């Protein structure tokens, strides 16, 4: 390896992907066999997330550089966490998360790492929706993607077109400080975490193909897991975005009830001004407390982030 070449660690989370993992590793090695001349070398990592088939054996036969094991299936978030940590420990300058099923074209990796190699971004998302989706995505998945992308645009400082991508790239700086709290939906968690840490974000259009083997983990239950995990991460990473709007809403309820009471009193419909005083005081106090807790949580979060 040329001393000037950057190490790009491609980690592949896998749960029983024996049908495609060998082809995935072999394609990576063939595609980037001469990449040192272009300034980087690819190292492959298999994250065995509790496989019970021949995934590990076939990856090793295909020449995977490193294998790390989970004793049981922990989830894609946990596997991504392990892959990122392993890449950092291997000394990678860049880490790439790639799915084992080859829905993402490994040739797109080179495009996605360029913003980081050029020091123009800290994290890069391969966007399917600004690229090409080469099959008819089921409507529930399409609209689910659109919904969560909109949510992440609201919750972060980024301009995101694909918050659910399986092709993600990270520089070494972010690898040293990232946090994935939940064991599901790593793309959304990482977007919130990176935004809170003021990491630079970029997108690159990529190809996306139909899955031909195995079964997608995305089911009708998935959105409920995602929402819970997003709230959990958001409260930790950027509590003001949760507590302040919630507190303002509760305080607004108090103001609304007070205004309605005042209207009825002025109109002569009731004899007592603010006759719902218990409700008014309750929502006002709760709203102010929630806002106060938000500022306390934000101070704690800022101190925690500065120590990582």
Note down, in words, how this protein is organized:
This protein has two domains: 6-237, Spore Coat Polysaccharide Biosynthesis Protein SpsA, Chain A (Alpha-Beta Complex); 240-307. Helix 1 (21-31) packs parallel to helix 2 and helix 9 (240-266) packs antiparallel against helix 10. The chain is of the alpha/beta class. It is built from ten helices and seven strands. The longest helix is centred in the last third of the chain and has 31 residues, at 277-307. The protein has a seven-stranded mixed beta sheet with strand order 3-2-1-4-6-5-7, sandwiched between helices.
Helix-strand layout with pairing:
Layout: E1 6-14, H1 21-31, E2 40-49, H2 55-62, E3 66-70, H3 76-89, E4 94-97, H4 109-117, E5 123-133, H5 139-155, E6 168-171, H6 172-175, H7 186-196, E7 201-208, H8 222-237, H9 240-266, H10 277-307
Parallel strand pairs: 1-2, 1-4, 2-3, 5-7
Antiparallel strand pairs: 4-6, 5-6
Helix pairs in contact: 1-2, 7-8, 9-10
